[in-house]
Amino acid sequence: MPETHHTRGGVRDGIRRAAAKVDEATPPGRDRAVDALRAFAILGVVLGHWLVTALVADGGALHTASPLQHMPWLAPISWAFQTLAVFFLVGGHVATRGCTSARARGTTYRQWLTARLSRLFKPVAAVLALWAVAATALLLTGAPFATVRTLVKLALSPLWFLLVFGALTAATPLVRRLHPLWPLAVVLHVDVVRFGFGGPDWLGWVNLAAGWLVPYTLGAAWTRGGLEGRRAGWVLFGGGAAVTAVLVLWAGYPASMVGVPGAQVSNLNPPTLAAVTFGLAQCGLALLLRDRLRRGMRRPLAWAAVALVNLSAMTVFLWHQTALMATTATGLAVGRLLGLHTVPDGLGWVAVRLAWLPVFALVLVVCWAAFRSFEQGPRRVGGRPSRVIRVHRRTDQAAAEEVRRA
User: Fold this and answer.
1) Using one digit for the tens of pLDDT, what is the confidence trace for 256-290?
2) Is the pLDDT of residue 7 over 90?
3) Cβ-count burial of 169 within 10 angstroms (0-12 exposed, 13-18 middle, 19+ buried)?
4) What is the pLDDT of residue 381?
5) Which of 68, 148, 314, 379 has the least C-beta neighbours within 10 A?
6) Is the whole model's pTM more than 0.90, yes or no?
7) Secondary element (H or E) of residue 62
8) In DSSP terms, which residues pair with 64 in a beta bridge?
9) What element of type H or E holds 41?
């Protein structure tokens, strides 16, 4: 026992030393709250998908289901984990700052955009290649086409987000001074025509750009210094929450802020006015938490954890659905397991699904180890593996720097 205690103490000391080195190597002018908000946004999406996405085994096929179908009173779960608006807020802030600083350094728009998008889209190649091979293998071995389609659709669903985010990033020089009320007005008018006057459903897809442009331009306003006071945060938080409540309670919008299989209207696919106003409330809360996050990120352990998530943000985002499906497929060899292959129609399913989360996380770590080089670049060649953690300062924050770990 004393030896075991000594070993554990040594591990803890090693982690603390590594965290301290990451903390010391971080430039003093870096706004750590930005990184913390990005990390929370990514982890919110991951946990949200793991909690509300079920692959139900029905005979020899798998189909998607959600506990929100059977227990709509669980809709507040989606309020906590639908955090894409915060990601677009941070993305608009970071891209606008980077675009401005790139111009000041004499960097061309093409060079800046290539550097920005290469980090986003390099990891996509690995996902597409693996699932092309996996889908072909499944079909050749006799898997039902409906099952393969379900799996591929679920695995590649994060790509829509990257396409929209990439398009807004490319448009940063055009939209960085756009007032958020303009895209918000577009969303409002699209919903009025679509829901109020029976307009065509395809019109809603205009909101795919306009809806996410609202938090993106808020991020640009943050860069310009227009959101520094707490008053702006309270107005966004209070106003967004109040309008969302009115839309849900009296205008007939769904309470869930994520898509629910079989629902007639989805707040997310494409974004509705309720999703956008809810995102405004989230952005307001994020702005109100900035000072507290900055203080919290002074702790080396907390900052090291946030830096690690940011270093692998796209890898985590792109592979978290694959981790869920790999666990589900492996579990089928044992049988229909509660919380994994069964219909999500009760609190028992929810409790067991929570117990599966560490398993999903472990499988995601395996995916991260296998594919992180597509995002972070290859390890140093020759001899022992590199012991360098490359904490990327995106081009919007000047240039990249390297952070060494113990």
Assistant:
1) 999 888 888 999 989 999 999 999 999 999 999 99
2) no
3) buried
4) 46
5) 379
6) no
7) strand 61-65
8) 55
9) helix 32-52
Count Cβ atoms below 10 Å from residue 341 Cβ, excluding itself.
19
- pLDDT value for 403: 33
Q: Which residue do the tokens 């918000």 mark? A: 184
Residue 60: pLDDT band (50, 70, 90) is low
**Biggest CA pair distance of the chain:** 74
Alpha helix ranges (H) inside 53-176: 67-70, 76-81, 84-104, 109-140, 145-156, 158-170, 172-175
**Are 398 and 102 within 8 A, CB to CB?**
no
Rounded (5°) CA angle 245-247-248: 65
Place of tokens 């996380």: 361
Residue with tokens 């026992």: 1
Amino acid sitting at position 203: L
pLDDT, mean of residues 12-26: 84
Domain ranges of the chain: 32-404
Handedness of CA 234, 236, 237, 243 (dihedral sign): positive
The pair of three-digit structure tokens given for residue 382, joined into one six-digit string: 């020759």
Give the DSSP letter of residue 108. -
Q: Which two tokens stand for residue 158?
A: 């994060």
Say if residues 22 and 324 touch (Cβ distance below 8 Å). Answer: no
